[in-house]
């Protein structure tokens, strides 16, 4: 089922406590402007300074950390920066944070004790495969399995060995001991190719990825069985006609109204009640019964 809808995802990077009246999104409530930074250096705010400079209404900032450390790439450390994050997951006081690549700061997943938000502590860092980024993660809290999406990215300073290319895909990690995560298995995408958003349930991962049959630059939906996370197995794929080698796109999937080429990419996935809601860029919203 295809419709012309767009989905916007929002990531919150500070830990906050919601309180007071319910938020009314349409009212456009005015929030007092915080004071401007004067001599305070960026990337070096204390928790109290973060609260002072934050704009808040009906919630309180209770924790903040840049998570500076050896896991931050050298160019960012030289500028005093910490980790930039794209995807957070938290369970039982343990946080898992997928690093972001623009600007290049962290190419991996930071695991931290966030049980005391005012004093969060890094526990371990899982690096991405060489030449990839790890922006998207999902956590199966019941099975204590962390799933990390790895996507080819030239900004990662750790490069593949000479003569080899980046290996994107999904990594499955045992995080029953968050201080000592263990790689269980890996489901590869096309070498030097792409992955993007994904979702999981208790048995399957539903991932946007470039596969062997996918045209260069495109991404389709791969369904991966991780019942045995040591041997994850691709069991099915879903794609828009035209995305695979040897296929032609239909008239609606060729160009936009301004004449530019459409981007027919599986981009982000949401799972709800045995259905996948897949944002497929210019192809719109695709709903898959699983």
Automatic annotation (TrEMBL):
It holds the Pfam family LVIVD. InterPro entries: LVIVD (IPR013211). This is Uncharacterized protein. It comes from Candidatus Segetimicrobium genomatis.
